[in-house]
Amino acid sequence: MELPPRLTVQREQKVCRLLKSLYGLKQASRQWFAKLSNALISYGFVQGNSDCSLFIKKSESSFMALLVYVDDVLLASDSILEIERLKTFLDEKFTIKDLGRLKYFLGLEVARSKNGISLCQRKYILDILEDTGLTGSKPAAFPMESTLKLSANDTNLYEDPSGYRRLFGILLYLTLTRPDLAYSVQVLSQFLAKPTVSHHQAAIQVLRYLKAIPGQGLFFPSSSDLQLKGFSDSDWAGCVDTRRSITGFAIFLGNSLVSWKSKKQVTISRSSVEAEYRALATTTCEIQWLLYALQDLDINHSQSALLYTDSKSTISIATNPVQHERTKHIQIDCHLIREKLQQHVLKLFHIPSRLQLADIFTKPLGSLLFHHNLCKMNIINIHVHLEGGYWSLPSHIESMELKRKEERLKIERKLEDES
What we know:
The protein is of the alpha+beta class and about 425 residues long. The chain contains 12 helices and 14 strands. The protein folds into 3 domains: about 30-100, no CATH class; about 120-210, no CATH class; about 225-380 and about 395-419, Ribonuclease H-like superfamily/Ribonuclease H (Nucleotidyltransferase, domain 5), CATH 3.30.420. It has helices spanning about 30-45, 80-95, 120-130, 160-175, 180-190, 195-210, 270-295, 310-320, 325, 335-340, 365-375, 395-419, and strands at about 45, 55-60, 65-70, 70-75, 105, 110-115, 115-120, 215-220, 230-235, 245-255, 255-265, 305-310, 345-350, 380.
């Protein structure tokens, strides 16, 4: 290494000797994680099976969970004394900086109350609007028009493709706390190679939607059961270019939304039933991974997970292996649903399409149904008073919400009686 500029030492020719480096070297991050994980394991932590960045330490008197993101660490425990001991140990090993109680982490804002915990990215969104010059733009009520069909064959190319790609990266990070952006970002990500003017206009629509409710985010209520519930849905041949279907799912732990996805399927489905069945298999894999994560966190989930779909044909295929003629063209790995049903890992139920919460991840919805689904997912805006009260739920949505809540309770009671 060379001496820094303007640093001169008379009569000596010396260079800097590199002692430690975290950034800039290809193997630096790997070596750093190996050093940190070895230190944590020597302290008594066990690396999680579901997530290699999760470390667990259990004893008769305490429980600690530690989550690592490069050189940032989140620590949770039921013992303040154990937390202080661990911080002392890490400070001796690595010289850490203690930021106190969790309030802001990698762009995520955390707010606590007796009712629960709220996660949002309001500051991050406001910075995005300022950088893109859309702070004074007209707000939009939804991120994508329900009739919009974007195609890669559009010839009117956008003049700044690198700017579009940067904007997509920003929007992708927002999906950590904004499930309402999952479908829109999934669609816009397909045109990174050659974005067009229409694609850029659709991205601006998403930013205008963020302008309306920048403080919206996830809410995890403090009083909730530990029952896993999943909603699986698919939009058959939703992509106008490839005719592939869109998989969407939403998984709840009690009343808290903990996992969701909107993704194009890797193969073309010959029927809507096949598309729904593939989506169901993807949701089943996610539920199984969440069960492993709960085991790592020492949470006992002995009951079967509940999985809802609006396709009766899919339920018939999953529960009846005799239907060979209808399923012989479907890949074998999709039939893991039957295995999980036989192992009582999950129970499969049919719900009406109007109650399908995963519908928001498979297609752009109208304003009424879009915001109804968001209400059911416990996505709220705790900063609404700071935003001039711009966004308030219309009275007709509130009345519809109460009506559909009563319908859902009737269906759940009926399903409990049948099971």
